Amino acid sequence: MPTIADGCYVADSARLVGDLHLGNDSSVWHMVAARGDVNHIRIGQRTNVQDGTILHVTRRSESNPGGFPLIIGDDVTIGHKCMLHGCTLGNRILVGMGAIIMDGVVVEDDVFIGAGTLVPPNKILESGYLYVGNPMQKKRPLKDSERAFLTQSAINYVELKNDYLEEGQR
């Protein structure tokens, strides 16, 4: 069964299954499917998973004894209709709408992934950069304003989920 920490918001239409932990002040929005059924999902604090996103993992096997769990850090914004599968995301990341991040990918802290970006398996996305494209390409270093937005986006969603909790919108 999923473990939901204090102060979280999970929309009624979201479906959380299996070995999943949602950290303090995080939010999971409408029509999200998160399946920790064959491996585990860990979502940090103040992270938001927006509408229509799919979160899944890869089963352990003889050729891949650990499988690929899904690990998402603190202050992460995952845009609408993304797909994250068996990857690891650090802290202060924005995943743009419709992005796909595949098995074995590691996204370091302070990264902006553009809308519609496809990150192929086993890539490492270096801290401090914007990545875009299909397949993804390292575009340029983040501007100071973009770095600031990574944290601000997480704060915005903490405030929004607090509004939903106060108004009893579940």
UniProtKB/TrEMBL annotation:
Taxonomic superkingdom: Bacteria
SUPFAM superfamilies from the UniProt entry: Trimeric LpxA-like enzymes
Pfam families xref list: Hexapep_2 (PF14602)
Protein name, UniProt field: Gamma carbonic anhydrase family protein
